[in-house]
Amino acid sequence: MKILFFGDSITEGGRNAFDPTDLGSGYVKIAANKLRLLYPDTQFEILNRGVGGNTTSDLLLRTHELEEEKPDIIVLQIGINDVWQRFSLGVDTPPETFKKNYIELVKRGKETGAKLILIQPYVLSMEDKRRFRPYLDRYNKAIREVAAKEKLPLIPMDEIFTGLTQDIAPSQFTTDGVHPTHRGCRYLADQVIKELKKYL
Q1: How many Cα atoms sit within 13 Å of 5 on the Cβ side?
Q2: Cβ-Cβ contacts under 8 Å for 171 (sequence gap 6 or more)
Q3: Is the distance from CB of 44 to CB of 36 less than 8 angstroms?
Q4: Contact between residue 98 and residue 79 where contact means Cβ atoms under 8 Å apart
Q5: Helical segments of the chain, H only
Q6: Which residues partner with 6 through β-bridges?
Q7: Is the distance from CB of 138 to CB of 182 less than 8 angstroms?
Q8: Domains of the chain (ranges plus CATH)?
Q9: Residue 55 and residue 83: Cα distance in Å, rounded?
Q10: How far apart are the first and last CA of the chain?
């Protein structure tokens, strides 16, 4: 079974971009290790195609990677940089544009014949990331609408992390409000595995 993780730096997890087999050290690597322990008789090919800084527009320019690999399952997490670039570059991605991009990503993913699992982008209340919240909420609303219309599984990581940090310091799960700690990566990996189990 070939599983391709597609996204930004959260997916990338420090992987070596010059080694197509490298999974990095983030949630993708943790999920891959757990899957192989849980299903020792299943032959997995896990691919990490996360690229730091990518937005929905950037991923659309890379969908040829999905066509070339023809995975059985695509795990898609994207969106936080569509917010980030508003503050870092002054580039605004209106919710309508974001939704259009996301719909197209899902369409191209499905055209490969793969099953799709969607992961919400998230932000925790830390440092300057609090200003991301209203914009991310609009994008996550669009993602929920696309997931419902396309009947695709959606892992609500924004809601999950928001709930966890009511009683636990956000710094336990993320270094800066966005990039996950090892503990945050474990939570992400566990949620992904719950959805992958439905196909195994």
Answers
A1: 31
A2: 126, 181
A3: yes
A4: yes
A5: 9-12, 27-38, 56-60, 64-69, 80-88, 95-111, 133-150, 157-164, 182-196
A6: 49, 76
A7: no
A8: 2-199 (3.40.50.1110)
A9: 9
A10: 9
Q: Which structure tokens are listed for 147?
A: 């997931």
How far apart are the C-alpha atoms of 94 and 98, rounded to whole Å?
A: 6
Q: How far apart are CA 199 and CA 117, in angstroms?
A: 11
For the stretch 55-97, pLDDT in tens is 999 999 999 999 999 999 999 999 999 999 999 999 999 999 9
**pLDDT score of 179:** 96
- pTM, two decimals, is 0.97
pLDDT digits (tens, 9 = 90+) for 137-159: 999 999 999 999 999 999 999 99
